[in-house]
Write a structure and sequence with these properties.
Layout lengths: L1 H16 L2 E7 L5 E7 L5 E8 L2 E7 L4 E8 L9 E7 L2 E6 L8 E4 L2 H32 L9 H31 L6 H6 L7 H8 L4 H4 L2 H13 L30 E7 L4 H12 L2 H4 L4 E7 L4 H10 L5 E4 L7 H5 L7 E6 L4 E3 L4 H14 L1
Parallel strand pairs: 1-7, 9-10, 10-11
Antiparallel strand pairs: 1-4, 2-3, 2-5, 5-6, 7-8, 9-12, 12-13
Helix pairs in contact: 2-3, 3-5, 5-7
Amino acid sequence: MKYFYILLSALLLTGCTNHYIEFTGNMPGIDNGIFVVKDLNGTTVFSENIFNGKFQIKKTLPGKGYYSLQIGKDIMQDGRRAAYDVYLEPGTYDISLEAGKTYPSIKSSSEIQNELSEYYNIAGAKINAAGSIVDSLSGLVYGKDAPPAGSSQYNALLAKLNNAITDRDNAQSSVLGDYVSKHPQNQVEAHLLAQIDYKKDPISFYTVYQKFTADQKNTDEGKTEGDDLANLVKLAPGAIAPKIAGKTPDGKAFDPKTITQKIILVEFWQSDSKVSRLNHNSLLNDYASLLKNKDFTIVSVSLDTQQGAWTSAIKEDKMSWTQICDLKGEASPNMANWGISTIPTYDLLDSNWHFIKRDVDFNDLYDAVRDQLAKH
């Protein structure tokens, strides 16, 4: 009986320690920083000060899963923490920051964390390299020493910049695709895809998604991604745009055949969106010359719910182009049919209502419109 109690005590002790997670850190150059772990809801789970580049913490882990690991170099500047995607489970995690790397070195017995580390180290290097090329070319195209707009030298640089932007945007799908091909039985692919804005390049990411294991496709994240991507590939360049639900301010149904211009900018906006309203001011002023072009027009689709708020904003913003709204807000079928996830959103279409480019960043929109007009 004595041996039974000894064995039982040992098992209980083992069961308790199995819930512990221990972090040790080596952060050269951080003398008064902070190490924080947050759950996916943003709630702080652990925190520890970093002194003279070192910290150590051992706590009970609420549950194994994905967390956000945050490192602040100065404890007084709370908003400047670098955040990293990690998978935590009971055990030890030896963490260090290495110069030139965008993801910490994390030594752990966790197989899932090791998969994350390998992906993020490869992705960080390739994506940063692609971004650096874009930044360098942007300086040449838009800097004070840029060649005159419209010159052959300027056009050549602009073409290189556009190609570099495409390469940068494709880098994420390329890296994830290579990783999945190299590790076909990995346990992190659905989670990784959920961290990426895959809606900007649905065809590439849908191709990658098809390589996922059945188990990964059947996770909550995997199911959502599969549904999203299946719909988004219908909105890829060259695809016919969905119908726009709603009416014009005078109560008439919208007929796309009334739009005859070769390049159509479809804007999704809302009257209480400050960004939308500021961008309208830019469209009126910075796009004045483009709006005079007979081959270009704008169609604004509001996601408002109140007729008065919508029409008042149209008048205040002096929008003279086509306006449409179904007054259903985020319940509007336009949200799902057009794959809208943020307000405002801008899509470029041709005269046949085929997609040219979806979800264009407003900062890139002027050049995108101008480039399309040049082709005509």
